[in-house]
Specification:
The structure holds two protein chains of two kinds. By secondary structure, chain A is an all-alpha fold. Chain A is about 75% helix and about 0% strand. Chain A has a single domain, classed as Up-down Bundle (Butyryl-CoA Dehydrogenase, subunit A, domain 3). In chain A, helix 1 crosses helix 2, helix 4 crosses helix 7 and helix 5 packs across helix 7. By secondary structure, chain B is of the alpha+beta class. Helices cover about 25% and strands about 35% of the residues of chain B. Chain B is built from two helices and eleven strands; from the N terminus they run H-H-E-E-E-E-E-E-E-E-E-E-E. In chain B, strands 1, 2, 4, 5, 7 and 8 form a six-stranded antiparallel beta sheet that branches. In chain B, strands 3-11-10-9-6 form a five-stranded antiparallel beta sheet, with no helix packed on it. The longest helix of chain B is centred in the N-terminal third of the chain and has 42 residues. Chain B is rod-shaped and about 120 Å long. Classes of the chains: A mainly alpha, B alpha+beta. The interface between A and B is medium-sized, with 32 and 25 residues.
Chain lengths: ~150, ~210
C-alpha cells in the first residue's frame, strides 16, 4: 500500500493510541509520523491488511513507550488542553482515569477494549505471553477501579 | 467493574481524531521524508556515476600514468654510481644530475619484455666511454666522460631499440636520447612504434632473451 493509503486507513487509529499513551496531541502526531516512516522503510510484504494493522500498532506503541522513557514521566496535561471536553462529568472522569494508567496497562486496554483484539492476538502484537497479557489486563482493571474509586470517594 | 464502562471507554477513545491541519501536517512531513529519501538515493547514485566517469576520464587523459609499461620497454636511469634509480616514462624529458664520486655519467637499464625479439642501434656523438652490455632481457648502457668533466655542450647520443616478431617484422621502436643543453643533461624515452608499420622487415639476427 502507498503511504497515503496507509495513513488514510490507519492514521486515525494510530493517532488515538498516541494521544492516550502520550497524553499529548503534538507527541501523538510525531508518533504517527515516525510509525509511517518505519512503514516506508519496511522491506517485506504484509500477508494481509490485518497483519499490517497489527504491525503498525506494535510499532506505534513502541514509539510511544520510547517517547515516554525519554520524557521520564507522564506529562499531566489537563484533558481540556488536549481538546477533550466532555459534557458528561462521568465521561471526563473515565478518560482522566484511563490517561492516568501506567503505559503497560494502557496499551493492553487500547488493544483489548478499543481495537477489539483477543488475548492471543495481543500477545503476538506486544510479544508477550498470553498469561502476561491476562495479568496486565486484570491489574489494569484493578488500577482503573482504584483511580475511579478515588474520584468517587472525592 | 461495570463492563459498560469499558464500552464507554471504547466509544470515547474512538472519538479522538486529529484535526484537519494535523492530518495535513502528518502527511506532508511523511511525504517530505519520502521525497528526501528518494532524493538521497538519487544523490548517491549520481555521485557513484560521477565518480566512475571521473575515474574513466582521468585514466584516459593520461594523468594517471603507470610508472612501468606493461607491454613495452621499461627504462631505468641512474647516475654513474648506480644509486637512486628512477623510472623513465615515455615522452617525458627528464633532467639528470650526472656528477658524483664515480665520475660524470649515467647508467641506463632497458628491460625488454619477455618473449620478444629485439636489436639495437646507436647514433649521435660518442662521448668518452659509451658501452652497451646485454644480459638476458636487460640492456645496460653506460655513458660517461672520461676526461672527468661534464659532457660537451650540445652533445646528443642515443640508443634505439627495435622489437620484432619471429618473422622479422618490426613491432616496436624506442629511442633513448641523452642530450646536453645549456649546462644541463637530459634524457628522454620516445616510443616511435606507431611510425614503423611500413618499414622493411629485418634479416639480421635478433636477440631474444
Amino acid at each position: 500500500m502507498e503511504i497515503e493509503e496507509v495513513f488514510q486507513e490507519f492514521g486515525n487509529m494510530l493517532y488515538r493510541v498516541g494521544v492516550v499513551m502520550l497524553r499529548s496531541r503534538h507527541d501523538a502526531e510525531d508518533a504517527v509520523q515516525d510509525t509511517l516512516i518505519k512503514y516506508m522503510e519496511h522491506k517485506s510484504e504484509f500477508e494481509s491488511k490485518e497483519h499490517l494493522k497489527a504491525w503498525l500498532l506494535r510499532v506505534n506503541i513502541n514509539i510511544c513507550k520510547n517517547k515516554l522513557r525519554f520524557y521520564q514521566r507522564h506529562p499531566s496535561i489537563p484533558l481540556e488542553q488536549l481538546g477533550m471536553v466532555y459534557r458528561d462529568e462521568e465521561d471526563c472522569v473515565l478518560m482522566e482515569a484511563l490517561m492516568e494508567l501506567p503505559a503497560k496497562y494502557k496499551e493492553i486496554f487500547l488493544l483489548y477494549y478499543v481495537e477489539g483484539y483477543k488475548i492471543r492476538e495481543i500477545s503476538e502484537i506486544l510479544k508477550l505471553s498470553e498469561s502476561a497479557v491476562k495479568k496486565r489486563l486484570e491489574r489494569g482493571r484493578e488500577k482503573l477501579n482504584e483511580l475511579l474509586g478515588g474520584h468517587e470517594n472525592g | 467493574m461495570d463492563e459498560n464502562r469499558f464500552e464507554r471507554i471504547r466509544e470515547l477513545v474512538n472519538e479522538i481524531e486529529p484535526a484537519e491541519d494535523a492530518k495535513g501536517r502528518i502527511l506532508e512531513n511523511v511525504t517530505y521524508r519520502k521525497r528526501k529519501k528518494v532524493y538521497r538515493y538519487v544523490k548517491y547514485a549520481a555521485a557513484a556515476v560521477a565518480a566512475v566517469l571521473i575515474c574513466a576520464a582521468v585514466i584516459n587523459s593520461g594523468l594517471y600514468k603507470e610508472a612501468e609499461n606493461q607491454n613495452g620497454l621499461n627504462v631505468y636511469a641512474s647516475e654513474l654510481d648506480g644509486e637512486d634509480w628512477l623510472v623513465l616514462p615515455e615522452g617525458e624529458k627528464r633532467q639528470l644530475s650526472g656528477s658524483n664520486e664515480t665520475g660524470w655519467g649515467y647508467t641506463f637499464m632497458l628491460e625488454i619484455p619477455e618473449g620478444v625479439n629485439w636489436f639495437y642501434t646507436q647514433s649521435g656523438v660518442s662521448i668518452g666511454v659509451d658501452w652497451v652490455y646485454i644480459t638476458g632481457n636487460e640492456i645496460w648502457w653506460v655513458v660517461h666522460d672520461d676526461s672527468g668533466y661534464d659532457f660537451p655542450d650540445h652533445m646528443e647520443s642515443e640508443l634505439v631499440i627495435y622489437l620484432t616478431d619471429d618473422e622479422g617484422n618490426k613491432t616496436g621502436r624506442y629511442r633513448l636520447i641523452l642530450s646536453k643543453e645549456e649546462d644541463a643533461c637530459f634524457v628522454e624515452l620516445v616510443n616511435e612504434s606507431y611510425e614503423i608499420e611500413d618499414e622493411e622487415p629485418v634479416n639480421r639476427p635478433a636477440c631474444r632473451p
